[in-house]
Hints:
Blueprint: H1 5-13, E1 23-25, E2 33-34, E3 40-50, H2 61-78, E4 82-92, H3 97-113, E5 117-125, E6 129-139, E7 154-158, H4 163-170, H5 176-183, H6 189-195, E8 201-204, H7 209-220, E9 223-227, H8 235-241, H9 248-258, E10 265-269, H10 274-282, E11 288-295, E12 299-303, E13 309-310
Amino acid sequence: MSETEFEIIRRYFMRQSLQREDVIAGIGDDAAVLQVPAGQELVVCMDTLVAGVHFPEGTPAAAIGHKSLAVNLSDLAAMGATPAWATLSLTLPETNSTWIDAFSHAFCALADRYGVQLVGGDTTRGPLSVTVQAHGFVAAGTALRREGAKPGDRIYVTGTLGDAGLALQLRERAPGELRKKLDYPEPRIEAGRALAGLASAAIDISDGLLADLGHLLEWGRSGASVQVDALPRSAAFLATLRRPGSHKQSSWYELPLSAGDDYELCFTVPEVLCPRVEQQLSALSCGCTRIGIIEEAAGIRCYLEDGTRYQPVATGYRHFDGANT
Ligand code: ADP
Ligand code: MG
């Protein structure tokens, strides 16, 4: 190693100017000492990204730095939590200062934007792997849960779906906006906070809408109808599918339904609260779109605009009411 472990930590991971008052001891001591505000509950999550499994070899260091924290902040968003702290376990094959600099710069930039202080971690040598733990707060009793969707509740998603999936399919040929959605997903923190106390259930979409909505239904012991023409698609997604030679028809429905990595929120709202939720989320850049309704009968039923059933092609998710599960 050209730099000792502590030099790496000092140079690249103590670069945040943010110093939260609830951090009594941060990086540098044997462990962090942290103060949870009175009346708040601590919300904790962890996600690991392994090279070649969760991102292709050769993914830019900045994208890995951003995404390793973003996927955790997305989990906090799905709980309605306000992020506060993070810890980082970094396993590196070699000490490459250019790589670590780009990684930590992107990680700290996202952390700064959401007021998250990096308070500790571990640095080891081995095949590239990044584990982040994120911590946030919710007012006691107000966390959004997967459990709680009731028949009659409306189903919504934030932002647009299918962008990351299309970028993954097209790789280098993907337009910048789609590539950005795949490599630099924006955690829907403000949306999650606005929904705490209003939504009956919430989840973030990491594995695809059908799979993740399926989890909500599993917890709520219910089913759903989804209007596939109502699924929100970005301008870049539409323009790309209009290119000659693209498999428009299948991708148009399949990517928003089944592709992962969008990190939007899927949530359910009792009908009486819908106007309030729509008003609050319309003030945010991501917005929200109503895509369906919770029903008693198990399974997910997809419908086209004209009322006919649409049978998704993709399999691999449970809780789909059809022959091809
Ligand atoms: P120990 O020998 O007690 O395990 P380390 O040398 O691993 O301590 O870490 C020293 C300090 O640096 C600790 O406060 C630890 O939390 C922090 N640290 C180590 N690696 C990282 C990292 N990748 N990101 C942030 N903090 C780190
Ligand atoms: Mg250690």
